[in-house]
Structure formats: structure tokens, C-alpha cells
Amino acid sequence: MHIAIIGTGYVGLVTGACFAEFGVNVTCVDKDAAKIAMLEDGRVPIYEPGLDVLIEKNRRAGRIHFTTDLKAAVHRALVVFIAVGTPPNPDGSPDLSQVEAVAAQIAEALDGYKVIVTKSTVPTGTGQAIRRVMEECCPAGASFSVASNPEFLREGDAINDFMRPERIVIGCEDPQANAILRDLYAPLIQTGVPLVATTVETAELIKYASNAFLAVKISFINDLALLCDRLGCDVLDVARGMGLDSRIGSKFLSPGPGYGGSCFPKDTQALAHLARSQQHRLRIVEAGIAVNDDMHEAMLGKIKTLLGEPYTDKVAGMLGLTFKPETSDLRESPAVAIGAAIRRLGVTLRASDPVAIPEAATLLPDVTFCEDPYETAAGCDLLIIATEWNLYRRLDLERLREVMRTPAIADLRNVCDPMQARRAGFRYLGVGRR
């Protein structure tokens, strides 16, 4: 089977590489000629563990190709995936202009029957909008089906999530298209991966509902951590006590400075906007958004407490800049937002990250970037742990204290043991830790 994937971001590249690994012939399409040239040269424009190896393996085997020629890719394919961006509009609704533009281009290129599948995260009703756009643009005699196949890939573990998914969701009312998509996913379905077969509209909502629920879970534990700060309780013990209940589970109960990335911020806003458009308010989702918005200021409060005034003669070091470990993604990163707020206080900021320094330099132009934690901490009055990279879980506290001007740690990810930090002579503040 030949498939085409329009869009070479996280979703498009991971989806393409993994289908190629299953033996499918894949053509990845992007209008960015520089990105396509990079991929054809064997270089991957994003950081995702294992993705470069998987792409190179399948590129050499001739199962994955990269092009700017959408028309040629559509001609070869039976299934065409739309995996372009849906960034937020100012009112929180998703901008579907890229999806609709690509749908029109696909329609104009149709030369026979195709299955058009949305991988992009889109609100309920987008499938119908794609159908309308394509019906207006497709040539006489061409035919197509529209389906929704949302992705559930975590940045940093995306390949494993594709290869060993907890479920596959296919929204499609057309029996022929349904059979084609089941055949495409047969290597996973045959291993017992649950398949949710439903309508296009329901599949679209499943994606938003899933992300919103996880975001609310993060906001719940973050809000509870702030209460633990006031009560003198340990939020990690609280989270463990909660998570051992199988009805709750332990995942997404790690307190921190708030969720970020390309999905949770925009998807919660989009779902809340969708509900309001139907004269309904998802009050729990809105509350989760509000808590997340407040977390940056709460973390800044801890930083101010440890630095002490006046701020203008202080130096802080920040470890980690991405919104989570094992990715280079800085979109909506709490670390970047907090770093910018620190600079506005007049604090001199030094920072480090294992993979994201080149991108971060454009967002934080007046920050000094360093290669490792100890260079970052040199001469600092405060060390801020903002992303929980494994590199930061076993810091040599004695060495840190020697290079810092003032030994203090704002542990926004709770990676240090508070008692060990204090025994090493540090003033320490975590998130909901005693």
C-alpha cells in the first residue's frame, strides 16, 4: 500500500517512519523545501529519540520518501493523511486554514478513489468541512472518503506510542474506507491493540477530550501542591497515595510549573471554545486552564523568595528549557516563560538544556547559555531546575555549592531530595515538598 502524509512535523514524521517500518510505502510532503532537502539528506529537523535512526533505515530500504510535490504524492497514494498544524487563534479556537488549504490541494490532485484522513488535532465538524472543500475542488470522476484517525503520541516517546499504542481510533462511516484503514493498521490490530471504530465527529472529540482530561489531571496535582506548601504536607506522598488507586492511576500526577508543549495548551483552549460555541461551558476544563495560567506566577514567587531583593544584582541559573524532557520542543514551555519573567525582574540569567539551546537563544536573546549544569551554576545566587531531564536527577550537590555564589535551589520539578539539599547547605524550595 502507498500512503501520503502532508506535513512533516512531529506527527507527520513519526507516523510516516512507523508506517514505513510496517512495510508501507510512504511519501512525506511539505511545502518547506529546505526541510525536505534536509530530510532527503538524512537529517531530521526535530529531536525525537530514535526517529533519525528509523527514518534513515527506511530511507535506505526505499520505503519512505520526501517531496514538495503534493500532486505526485497524492497520485501514488491510496490513503492521504493530513498532518499540518492547527495553531490557536486569539479567541482559543484552532486555526484550520492549513487543513482547509491542504484539503483543497488534495482534491485538485485526485485522479481516482482516495481515503483522506485527518491526523491533525481538529474540532468536531472539521471532517464535514474538509468534505465540503474537497467537493468544490475535485475533478469530475474523482471520488474520496473522509476519515478521522487522531494521534496519541507523547513527545519524547512517540515511536513507542505508535508501535505499542493503547488504542487506535478510526472515525469513518464508509465501509470501503474503514476496511482500508483496518488493513493499514493490521500489524497492530492483530497483536490485540483495541480498535475504537466510530463516527468522524466522535473520533475528533475523543482526541480533544483525552488531552483535556490529562491536562486537568496535571492542573489538579499542581493546585494540590500549592495547598501542600501551605499545610506542610508532601505532595509526592499525596500523589503516590492517590495513584495507587487503580481508578486514579499514577500517571500525570507529577507536580511542576504547569503543562506546556504543542498539545495541551491549545487543545484545552480549543475544547473550551468548542463548548462555548454550543452554548455550553466545560467548567472543569476552564478551571484547569486557569490553574495552569497561575502556576508560572506561583513558581516565580518561590524564585523571588530565594533570591531576595534587590533582584538587579542577582544571578540565576536555569537547568532545562523544553516543556518536558526528551524533546527539543519549546512551545508553551513553562521554563521559557519563567526565564523571561526572571529577566524582567532584572536578574541576570544563565541557562542550559541538553538539546534546545539553539532554539532557546532566539526566544531568550539576553541569556547566557552554558554546556552543563555546573557551568550554568557558576557564580549564581540561585539554581532553578525547570525541566526534569535525567541529567539533573543526580547532581553533585557538593560541587554545585562550591561553584555557586549563594547555595539555593528552586526545584520546580521536584527532582532533588529536599533533606539532602539542605544537609548540603542549600536553601531549598520544591513544589509541594516539605
Automatic annotation (TrEMBL):
The keyword NAD applies. Pathway: Nucleotide-sugar biosynthesis; UDP-alpha-D-glucuronate biosynthesis; UDP-alpha-D-glucuronate from UDP-alpha-D-glucose: step 1/1. It comes from the Bacteria. Its EC number is 1.1.1.22. It is an enzyme of class 1 (oxidoreductase). It comes from Chloracidobacterium sp. N. This is UDP-glucose 6-dehydrogenase. Residues 317-418 form the UDP-glucose/GDP-mannose dehydrogenase C-terminal domain. Belongs to the UDP-glucose/GDP-mannose dehydrogenase family. It holds the Pfam family UDPG_MGDP_dh_N. Keywords: NAD, Oxidoreductase. NCBIfam families: NDP-sugDHase. The keyword Chaperone does not apply. It catalyses: UDP-alpha-D-glucose + 2 NAD(+) + H2O = UDP-alpha-D-glucuronate + 2 NADH + 3 H(+).
